[in-house]
Each structure stands twice: as C-alpha cells, then as structure tokens.
Amino acid sequence: MTLETNESPGFATVISARPPVGRKLQALLFGATGSLPEQFARYLVVGGLAFVFCLLVQGFSGTWSSDFLVYPDEPAHFVGSVMVRDWLTSGRWLTPLQFSRSYYDHYPYFALGYWPPLFSVVTGIWMLVTGVGRVQALIVSAVFAAGTGSLVFQFARKRVGIAAGLCASALYLSLPVVRKVTCAVMVDNMTAFLCIAAAVCLLRYLKQPVLWNGLLCAVTSGCAILSKYSAAYLIALPFCAVLILRRFELFRKPSFLVQPFIVGLMVGPWAFWTRKLAFYGLPSEPEALTARHAASFIVNTLGIFPPALMAVVILGLIALLVRPKAWREDLVVLSLLCAGHLAFLILSPVGPDPRYMIAPAAVLLVAAFYGWWELLEWMYGKRWESAISACVAALSMVFVVSQFRHIARIPQDDIRNVVAFIMKDPARSAQHIVVPPTLEGPVIAEFVVQTRHRPYDYLLRPIKILARANWFGLNYSSAIGTPEEMMEYFRKNPVHLIIWNEGPESMVKAHERIKSGMLEMLQRYPLSWHKVVSLDSAGGSSMSWTIYEYCPSPQESR
C-alpha cells in the first residue's frame, strides 16, 4: 500500500489556485483558494447552512413542541443539564455534591457522574443565557450535528471538491439515525463532532508538529472523552497514526509526548471522583465477545445508511482497495478513527445501538466519496469532473428530498398539559407527587421545564419507592407485595398527588408490574384517592391521564 502525504489536512490549508469568480458569496463557497480568514469564513457559511438544515429537520419532526420521548436517556440528559445551570446560579459552588443530592430529592432523574459532564456543562451554560426549555436544549444538539456535517464537508472537499463536499454533508445530516439524534436532547452529536474534530487536529499536527497543534489535538481528545467515555480510544489514535505513517521522528518530540498527559489531566480528576458510578449503568453480564458480536456492530454501522445509499457506500469502499494511491494521511487517520471507535464499542458491555456509531458512519461516507472519486477520475480523467459533480449533486438532492418526505412526527402524550394543570394551582405545588411508572423521566423533565424556582416539588418514582430494579428495569423485586401493603406505605409516607396514565404497554416489565399493583390499589381504595381530573391526549395519541389526590377517609384512619 502506498501512503502519500495530504497537502491540506487542516483548517488553515491552501490548495491550487483557480480563477476568481464574480460574486463574493460564490467566491466564498466555491473558490478553492483564499487566505486563512476566507477559508474560515467558508467553513462558517457551510456550518450555518448545515445548522439551518438541522433546524428544518427539527421543525418538520415537531420535536420543539413534543415531550421528552425520543430516547429513554433524553430526560436524564436534560434534567442533568438544568441541574448544572441551577447550581451555577445557586451560589453553592463549593458544595456541588451536596447540591446534586438535594436536587435529586426533588427531581430524581439524572445520571451526571455515571455520564461524563461536558454535555451537561455546555447545555447548562447555554441555558443560563437562553432560559430553560426543550427548544433551547435542542439547539445544542443541532449545533453539534451541524458541526459534524461541516467536518464531513471539510474532509470531502479536499479530495472531491466543494459541490461534492456539500453533498456529503447533506447526505450525512439526512441519515435517519442522525436526524433522530438531532431531534433529541442527547450527547451523541457532540461526541461524534469532537471525535472527528480530534482527527482534524491530528492531521494538522502531522503537517506541522509544533506544540500548539499538539495541545489542540490533546484538548480536543480530552473534551471528546469528557462527553462520552466511548471516545477513550482517541488516546491511542496519535500513536497508531504515527506508527502506520512511519513518522517515527515524532516520538522524540515533546509536543507529541505531552499529549496523553494533557488528556489524563483533563479526564483523570473526573474519572477518579466518579469511579464508583462509572460502571453503574452497564450490564452485569455483558454479551460474550464473539465474531458474531463484533460483526453486529459492523452490520449496524452499515445499516445506518438506507439500502440504496448503503450499496453506494460499500462500492465506494471497495474502490479504495483497488486504488492504493487514495490512501493518504487523511484517509489513514479517518480509518484508524473508525476502527478504534468500533473496537472500543465491541469490547464494551453495550449493545450495537446505531446512535453509538454515527461517527464511524460519517467516516465511511467520506471514505466512500474518496473511493468513487478516485475510481471515476481513473476511468474518465479530470475532464469529466464537472459532469460527475453535477450527477452527484442531483442524486444527493433526490436522496435528501426523499428522506425529508419520510420524517416522522414525534408523538405527543400531552404531558405538558398535565403538568401545567398541577402547576397552575399553588395548593398542589411544592408537594410530594408520584409520577406514572411508565413515563417517569418525561414527566419529571416537564416539571423541571415548567417550574420557575427550582428545586420545588418532590417528585417520587414508583420504581424507586415501591420496587427494586437495576438500571435497565431488570432483576425486579417488589418492595410492596399487596394493594393493602401499598396503601399502608402511602399512609405512613403521605403523598399529595398520583399522576396516572393509561396507554400502550411499556417494554420494561418492571414498570408494568408496578403499574398493575398501583391500579389495583387505586380501585380498591376510591375514598382515599380522589379523582381530580381526567385528560385525553391530543394529536392522535392513545394515552389518557388521571390525577388522583390523597384524601384519607375516617374509616380508613381507624
């Protein structure tokens, strides 16, 4: 395999000159030359277009007005971010652990400690400026999705030109799993952006191995790990790249050797402080490490692409095997990034969830563009470059439009109106409230949104007070055996309200067991649980809501 040095791996690069075009915007977007400020402005323009694209995806899906239902972890990410925001405004900066414990007593649905802090810190600081809300948090997800799209453009542009680079960016942002993550308050877009940004910084360092570039590479890698521990493989990425590219002289440079120490200084204190929580949410009995298990991650990564695009990507990757001159520094580093990301996931006790693999998917898309371009250039030469670009643009536009037609509206279960009904009555606020067992997280997150002076209400999760189960709702054991025992528990531990919902059966069996036990108690003791209001969800949802107020009767008191 022949390795050739890329002449433009970083942001501050200049490639061969072309004649200037007439208008400034055209020169900015489609001119290949320019000073550093002009190139930086070009990436800002592309990033802005990608951001608008992400906002359109969110708008078409209806996620701005929906509940926190896209992913099970979404409410926890949101509540954790708001907690950081409220801690920053509390003045209790020297007692973060005490503050978080007190906050958990009110809103028991966040996992800061098990998850690294960067997403919560960034989103919390953003909400200091913009206020607390779902839309504000979704802007953060859109920004990092757009950032990843602009990095895809950057990598593709250097090989295949501006037009095809824009197509690659649009195709990435149109992928179903990317769209879904962009419509949720989730950390995955941030992690994908920082991982690929670390590759950009590494390529910059390989071109100019100076201390500043080494620091930039280390800091970006550290930030990626502090967004999600699955980025820990980035520590080894520079060493593997130097070995494969045979840049052995870098092993003697302090700017290279200092990088893992900087990453350690960034990640180490948090990892040590939260070491007892880091493995709390992982399966106690992970799946055996087999070839089938490893293959499932590769298959699911390719499965991120819709069938037609998957075939194009696979053929483009095959083309790279017959064109060894395509393997320059940028492709080598990206390949190592993809391999490291998948290897870390395979070795981790997690399943092949597609959202974990959006960074490798971005890499495969860029690599496929490289392969197709090398193959077509070899077959037809540069004279057909404009025609090829036009065909790529047309096909990409067809794909993007077809994906927009398949954007599904996110369901709405009317949680907002249920919480608003409770919050509008001061007598029902600042009370102990039991949230529905099948929608604990979304309801708690909505209380956080609508409460102006947090922490305020005491929200109780049935899975915590009435039963015992692990992170995944497994190993269930009931702490309360019968409806009589459950009623006795609430007499000794009074609550003001129970929020009850009727809807589709939960996939978590522990939630259904608790729900059936609570329903039997509510039916058996109607005098103690007064029905305050019943609501039916709008928007075609099959969910219905009932709010019960605890009113112990004289007969039951005796």
What topology does this entry show?
Blueprint: H1 24-30, H2 36-61, H3 74-90, H4 96-106, H5 118-130, H6 134-160, H7 162-174, H8 176-182, H9 188-207, H10 211-227, H11 237-245, H12 254-257, H13 259-273, H14 291-302, H15 307-322, H16 329-347, H17 358-380, H18 385-405, H19 415-423, E1 432-434, H20 440-450, E2 458-460, H21 462-465, E3 467-468, E4 477-478, H22 483-492, E5 497-502, H23 509-524, E6 529-536, E7 544-550, H24 554-557
Parallel strand pairs: 1-2, 1-5
Antiparallel strand pairs: 3-4, 5-7, 6-7
Helix pairs in contact: 2-6, 2-7, 3-5, 3-20, 6-7, 6-9, 6-17, 7-17, 7-18, 9-10, 9-16, 9-17, 10-13, 11-16, 14-16, 15-17, 16-17, 19-20, 22-23
Describe this structure in words.
The protein has helices at 24-30, 36-61, 74-90, 96-106, 118-130, 134-160, 162-174, 176-182, 188-207, 211-227, 237-245, 254-257, 259-273, 291-302, 307-322, 329-347, 358-380, 385-405, 415-423, 440-450, 462-465, 483-492, 509-524, 554-557; strands at 432-434, 458-460, 467-468, 477-478, 497-502, 529-536, 544-550. With 558 residues, the chain is mainly alpha-helical. The protein has 2 domains: 24-65 and 133-281 and 308-325 and 333-404, no CATH class; 415-557, no CATH class. It has a 5-stranded mixed β-sheet with strand order 2-1-5-7-6. Strands 3-4 form a two-stranded antiparallel sheet. Helix 6 packs parallel to helix 17 (358-380), helix 7 runs parallel beside helix 18 (385-405) and helix 9 (188-207) packs antiparallel against helix 10 (211-227). The longest helix is centred in the first third of the chain and has 27 residues, at 134-160. It is elongated. The model is unreliable at 1-22 and 25-33 (pLDDT under 50).
